[in-house]
Amino acid sequence: MAPLPGGPRGRRLTRIRTARSESDSLRRRRAGTDHLGKLSGVSHPRPDVPVAALNDVLSEVIDGVLDLRQARRRVPETHALHAVLDQLLNDLRAWARLLVDQDQELGVSPLESMSTGAGRTPPHSWHGAASDEEVRRVIGKDLDRLGEHLAVALAVQHDDKLRTALTEVQRGVLVHSRALREL
Question: Could you tell me the pTM of the whole model?
Answer without folding.
Answer: 0.69
